[in-house]
Amino acid sequence: MPPNNNKVLLDQVIELLEIATQLDKSGRHHRIEAATKYYESCYLMRQILANDAGEGLSSSDSSSTIISTTCRRLLEDKIKHYTKVAQRLYFDDSASIAGPAPTSVIISLLDDVVSVLTSTNHPLEQQQQPSSSDPFTATLPQQQYFHPRNVPTTTTTTSTAVATTRSNPSTLLQLPVQATIVRRGGGRETVGAVNNRNNPESLSKQQQQQQQQQQQQQLRRHSHNNDNNNNIRTTGAKPRARLSKFAKVEAERKIHIKMNLANSKLGQSIDLDEYCHSQQQSNNQNNNNIIIDSYVDASEFYLDAIKLAEDHQKKYDNNIDPWRGPGASPSPSPIGSVIPKLKHLLISALDRVETLKKKMKKTDITAKIITKKTLITPQRYSRSPHHSGMGWDGMGWDGMGWDGMGWKGGAK
Questions:
Q1: Is residue 267 domain-resident?
Q2: Could you tell me if residue 328 is inside a domain?
Q3: Where along the chain is composition biased (Polar residues) (predicted)?
Q4: What residue numbers bound the domain in which 360 lies?
Q5: What is residue 3's predicted lDDT score, i.e. its pLDDT?
Q6: Which of 204, 231, 263, 370 is 20 to 30 A distant from 168 in Cα terms?
């Protein structure tokens, strides 16, 4: 059983998946939020696997495992599945997930656990087992070096004709014989291929189509290699390297992280803005500064995501498809459809920042006008003797007046 930390993470994963499925069912307007929840659940599942790996390394007993192999395999499958679902929601505007959504995530997880536990062998283990025990049709270990005169030439043929020979044993003579002949130099050839050469009518249309497709693929590869050699001879430049799958996945992962951060930050700033507006605290300068800082942080994350997406798009455009040739136009990247949406969200966040700044300026101007009025009004009233408490005596006519100026004091 996993520890308490992993139990808490599993509960959070199930809760996030429930919210994501509800958002996905609600319509296309909540696609981004649903995809974000799916990504968060995948992140938590990866964290569970990482915690399990760390506990396994720290423990002295190598056989002690916190999470069983079936549970680990199930989590890995769920991470792959929900990552694809989130990518489809991000990059596909037409519709949501294909097929009906599950009614409950807990039920689907339990079904998957039962299917994994009841399966006798893992699919990978079944693939590793040899498909045939016949020594003639079994694959032989390849030799590393051959003499030039004894280069192995392999010809593969597939037969689609299947006949039942129990009722009519004479049909065995009409069927093409399939056997592998191993020559001394390492060359191999099927007897069925030799018989088909002598009798071309026995080949079906499907076999002819397969052979034509193989020949076309070989011609395309040969022509592409010749084009690359011609480019090197004429221009002296090597063909541009293709983007590896790992580089594409890593770039998409970084873009998704930035998009998730930007979306979450923008959602927090919108919630705070609506709360202050509902509580009639929009004129508070401290709250406005906090909201503006939150919008600015979201816009910075959007800028980082746009920059990463544009760099990935440039690399994707410079990529050469070897099957289409160097002069062919590249296929559109799925990242390219996200860039306009990110720019739209960035512009909306910056517009909100400008409106909040204008509000703050207006409130500052009105506050200054009010303070000036409060400062001006007592000065006007202090000059008139009726409104001042000093009067003629307060102005000093009696204290500093004729007596104070020395009229009476001089007489004394």
A1: yes
A2: yes
A3: 193-205
A4: 250-383
A5: 57
A6: 204
Q: What is the pLDDT of residues 85-110, one digit of tens each?
A: 888 887 765 544 444 444 445 445 54
For residue 195, is pLDDT > 70? Answer: no
Largest interatomic CA distance in the chain: 162
Of the residues 83, 100, 123, the one at which a domain ends: 123
Which residues face 180 on adjacent strands? 190
Give the CA angle between residues 277, 280, 285 to the nearest 5°: 85
Per-residue pLDDT at 397 exceeds 60 = no
Does residue 190 contact residue 155 with C-beta atoms inside 8 Å? yes
Are 84 and 110 in contact, with CB atoms under 8 Å apart?
no
| pLDDT value at residue 170 | 45
At 342-357, the pLDDT tens digits run 888 889 889 988 988 8
pLDDT score for 169: 45
State how many domains the chain has.
2
Q: Is residue 76 part of a domain?
A: yes
Q: DSSP labels for 113-149?
A: HHHHHH-SS-HHHHHHS-S---TTTSPPPPPS---GG
